[in-house]
Amino acid sequence: MSDSVATADTLQEGVAGAVKDWTSPMQTFQVPWGKAMMWIFLLSDTFIFTCFLTGYMSVRTSTKVAWPNPSEVFALHVGETNVPLLLIAIMTFILISSSGTMAMAVNMGYAKRKKAAVWLIVATAGFGASFVGMQAFEWSKLIEEGVRPWGNPFGAAQFGSSFFMITGFHGAHVSLGVIYLLWVARRVGSGYYDSSGNYELVEIAGLYWHFVDLVWVFIFAFFYLW
Amino acid sequence: MSAEEGQQHPIKLYLYIWTLLFVLSFFSYLVDYFAFQGVVRWTLILIFMLLKAGFIVAIFMHMVWERMALATAILTPPAALLVFIGLMSVEGYYINGSRLLYFATIAAGG
User: How far apart are CA B49 and CA A55, in angstroms?
Assistant: First the structure.
């Protein structure tokens, strides 16, 4: 392990270090290859989600039909009153909770506290699964109310296509993440990483999971709140 | 445990950031709850969004502790996206303007 990744004290820090890394003949990124590849994948995913959100921005600014008010469309009836965006707020808190448990899991993995790591990863996956469940509820509610990719009763037709595409793609990421996390939890639990003593894969899975949370921050701001 | 064994940081820091993310999310929800409108609404939404995104990338994804070579490789390409967003914003308003100009009579009929 220590042959492929240089130890911290032989490396320069700051700008000088960055220049040295970028001009180095063998290896630019002094991290395990899996981590570098995950970051590059997440960068490409950033471009995909930005294209979706930019497409949404384009249709929303260019339509002359009024945009549906998300605060009303996503309101929930609680007793007699309409609470704006209640379900979306709960989903946001659930995803942040899952990010927290994931950060803990990475920590526990490196601390070699296997049992704690496994349960924290499973908790993260559980939060993720409940998030997808709520999204399914939200989709069925909107479909019932007549929201379609080609039109809806509340206003501009592009609302439906933007909504289903953006939240659908994000939901697919969460669903895949849940499967990925359960697989990592199983490997940690079965002692697969014990022989190498290398719990980086938990951190790499964590990067993916935090990214899913990160994308939701932008969707929440631009689609639900704007 | 030494630095080359991966990213290890005190649990206290994670708990602190976790709490902070909850508070910031709650604030951004309040923006909608109290129905702020216009520039105030957009500014508040953007501030809370950028703070949340920053903390997630910096602390939870460990970007502040990574070497600058990795940080620059990941964080500079999205600058191209900002240019793209700017261009599409101009384009969107332009299309909106021409629609209002040329299809205004059709809009009256539906």
Answer: 19
